[in-house]
Amino acid sequence: MNETVTKKMMLFFPRCECEKPIIYHLVKDHNLVVNVYRAKVTPEEEGYLVLDVTGTEDDIERAMAFVKTFNVTINCTGKGVTWDESRCTHCGYCITHCPTDALYIADEATREVAFNEADCIECLACIRVCPFGACASAF
Amino acid sequence: MKTYQQINDRIESGKAVVLTADEIIGYVEKKGLAAAAEEVDVVTTATFGPMCSSGCVLNFGHSKPKIRMSEAWVEDVLVYTGLAAVDVYLGATQLRHADPANMYHPGEFRYGGGHVIEDLVAGKTLQLFALSYGTDCYPRREIRTYFTIEDLNQATMVNPRNCYQNYNVAINDSDKTIYTYMGLLEPNRRNANYCSAGQLSPLLNDPYYETIGMGTKVWLAGAHGHVYAEGTQHAGAVARTPAGVPKGGAGTLALTADMKQMRPEVVRGVSLLGYGVSLALGIGIPIPVLNEQILKRTCVRDRDILAPVVDYGTDYPQNTGRVIGHVNYEQLRSGRIKVEGKDVAVGSLSSYCKALETANLLADEIRAGDFQLARPIASLAKENKMKPLVIRQKEP
Q1: Over pLDDT 70: what percentage of chain B?
Q2: Min distance B178 CA to chain A CA atoms (Å)
Q3: How many domains does chain A have?
Q4: Which partner from A128, B54, B136, B304 sits 20 to 30 angstroms from B142, CA to CA?
């Protein structure tokens, strides 16, 4: 059980949880490596945090149990950035704007575009530039 | 040598041999030009991309009492009413009422004429609001109602300029990011954008307009339409490669078709950050293999087609005419081009994937005997040049 894994998750904060240093405890008490993609945590408002955590399964499990004590909703399956294949026209305009190649040409012959969610760091560049509104953010 | 009649007879009997402009290259290489010209009847070409000079004429029918619309909006997008009482023209690049445009730069332009056209073809319910000054024969002064495309008497797409034969590769020589109809261009040549289906594009497969002319039947977003005139800014007299392929814009087509027959997946509103709205269309055009020379020209490859690299920071807006250099479509499709020694990432606004899909859909229709070819009634000009707009003082 000492193998480390990386999990991407979205945390939703209800109002008034933002003064607590949750990330600090994830690192210090639960030995997790934390990589925050984006966050919006403002006093008196709901907030969110999209991050990667790397650690052993046990550490991650204990850390999540800790996070849940703050009335925070954890979503490990949700997608912060989505790509709607039916809206995409596969023009490929987004490709040069995607810094991690999460959006890529899947088939050189047909120039079909595909999206690999695992590589997405949620920089939101695609949402800004896509002429067809194929990319969207959950928040 | 074949005639239009012979080809149409073969289409009607379901025996026509049809290949896409993508497939024909390998086929001719394998079979040889003479044998392939005997065998193949039609080569289908296609393109999918933003085409700003697009729009449609709508006829709403008459309300009770009647109105002569003098100002009108569909989904808050202004339409042109300088026509008969309930005829309007809806243009692809018209912004929605109260869109802040570029007041907060760069503007997002989320909805406009192109999106109304997309929604109309998709069968959505849309709002019409119109005003009038009122006349004895048309007394109503105001109307607000909801309609779908099925409620309209006519919804006819009338596009003054589609299918540009070839197009610029846009790059930015300035030191700040610019937002253009060719997309976002980062400073100091950090990226480039192009917009053409290259070897699949209609007029690049018929560079001398031998089969595509006024009256040619086209597949306009799924509807059977035709070329009704030469497109605006059509300029046949441009620099060409030895094989006749234009090294820049050149020819254009004016197209029309019934919107009620169109397919929503190839009629798509476009939002260009910091620029505005437009409409992307999928267009397929069949080329009849009348002789070997026509077939030979449909075998054009991406690597044989050159596109001019143009600076949109200064040269394009200031109309200097300077071209930095030329690159071919094989290089463009690789995603990297070299511009004066510099390696530049390149993106596309035109979808090769959708163009390929369109070329195949058209080929299937022709094979099934559902799409007959039409001989042009007049040719497109080969000798004309594009004129600039001269700013003159009023003569005393």
Answers
A1: 100
A2: 13
A3: 2
A4: B54
Residue for token pair 């190649």: A101
Is the distance from CB of B185 to CB of B172 less than 8 angstroms? yes
Which CATH number is A11's domain given? 3.30.70.260
Nearest chain B CA: its distance from A4 CA (Å): 36
Residue A71 belongs to what domain range? 4-75
Task: Please tell me whether residues A10 and A64 are part of one structural domain.
Answer: yes
Tens digit of each residue's pLDDT (9 = 90 or more) over B361-374: 999 999 999 999 99
Please tell me whether residues A15 and A64 are part of one structural domain: yes
Kindly determine whether residue B352 and residue A90, on different chains, have CB atoms separated by under 8 Å. Answer: yes
A94 to chain B, closest Cα gap in Å: 7
Residue B135 main-chain phi, psi, to 5 deg: -135, 175
Residues in chain A with CB shorter than 8 Å from the CB of B352 are: 90, 92, 110-111
Asked if residue A45 and residue A65 are part of one domain, the reply reads yes
Q: Give the 3-state secondary structure of residue B343.
A: strand
Please name the residues between 118 and 177 in chain B that touch chain A, using a CB distance below 8 Å: none
Give backbone dihedrals phi and psi of B68, rounded to 5 degrees, phi first.
Answer: -105, 100
Could you report the per-residue pLDDT of B75-87, keeping only the tens digit for each?
999 999 999 999 9
Contact B348 A132 (CB under 8 A): no
| Single-letter code of the amino acid located at B42 | V
pLDDT in tens, B244-301: 999 999 999 999 999 999 999 999 999 999 999 999 999 999 999 999 999 999 999 9
H-type alpha helices, B46-108? none
Mean pLDDT (chain B, rounded): 97
Domain finish residue from A75, A99, A125? A75
